[in-house]
Design a protein that fits this description.
- There is one protein chain.
- This protein is of the alpha+beta class.
- It has a single domain, classed as 2-Layer Sandwich (HIT family, subunit A).
- It contains 3 helices and 5 strands; from the N terminus they run H-E-E-E-H-H-E-E.
- Strands 1-2-3-5-4 form a 5-stranded antiparallel β-sheet, covered by helices on one side.
- Bound molecules: guanosine-5'-monophosphate and zinc ion.
- The site of zinc ion (ZN) has 6 residues, from helix 1.
- The site of guanosine-5'-monophosphate (5GP) has 13 residues, from strand 2.
């Protein structure tokens, strides 16, 4: 048996907060999951719907994920779309902060799925 189990990703970082959420050792409010991707509520929501969509495998940011496993990035986007349909009106903003100057504070790639109201626009 060579295939990895859904909850045992090949790429993990024992110090990483989101790897710990994937492993279940840090609690989170999970709203959707697939064998490859997990989505949970942001602990500090900025809108009625604010969910983080995270590949189970550890990639540092969206560029590393896109280069390393583009199909997995597509899986992240597909789950974001599904969540927006389930938790809001199907419309959403998907944000990947990349690097500390762009606001990234957890260095395991995650898309912020934001919606559930008419959003303003103040990108910087
Ligand atoms: P970033 O700043 O890296 O783009 O986004 C990190 C996000 O993770 C922030 O919006 C922050 O509120 C959220 N966050 C930080 N720690 C936790 C946690 O322990 N649990 C959950 N659910 N979200 C967290
Ligand atoms: Zn991680």
């Amino acid at each position: 048996m060579t295939s990895s189990q859904p909850n045992s990703p090949t790429l993990t970082d024992p110090e990483c907060l989101f790897c710990k959420i994937v492993a279940g050792t840090v609690p989170a409010t999970v709203v959707a999951e697939t064998p490859e991707v997990i989505a949970f509520r942001d602990i500090n929501p900025q809108a009625p719907m604010h969910v983080l969509v995270v590949p189970r495998e550890h990639y540092g940011d969206i560029a590393q994920l896109a280069a390393g496993d583009p199909a997995l990035l597509a899986g992240v986007v597909a789950l974001a779309d599904e969540i927006a349909g389930d938790l809001a009106d199907g419309q959403f903003r998907l944000i990947f902060n990349s690097g500390p100057h762009a606001g990234q504070s957890v260095f395991h790639v995650h898309g912020h799925v934001i919606g559930g109201e008419r959003l303003g626009w103040s990108p910087a």
